[in-house]
Structure prediction request, 140 residues.
Amino acid sequence: MTNAGDIMHRGATCVQESETLEAAARRMRELDVGFLPICGTDDRLHGIITDRDIVLKCVAMGGDPRRMTAGELAQGTPVFVAADTEVDQVLRIMEQHRIRRLPVLEGHRLVGVVSEADLARHLSDEQVGHFVEAICAEGD
Prediction:
């Protein structure tokens, strides 16, 4: 059976907890992404930051992205899966948490990310349609 490690894209770039939101935003622009995992000095996943987080939780609240760090913005425990998690379970987790990107860990280390694009490349049209419907349901 297909698992997260089979469909993820490898080489996810982390932003360190101590880096500013401005640095995170620059890295997002350079990589043309809207999401970065937050890693600690232990090189383990400590959170997730999105471009939307930076805008809504810092800039729109009068914060200074040149001073606020990624670690300060991170809240709660990040949702992730192991590389050997079956794709059906990956899909359920993403739908349940209504997330579009899911970090993949191997031995507590970040090895990749499953995104909507990865799902679209590897799942049936019916599965992708159900996923999009589930995460875009009313209430956003």
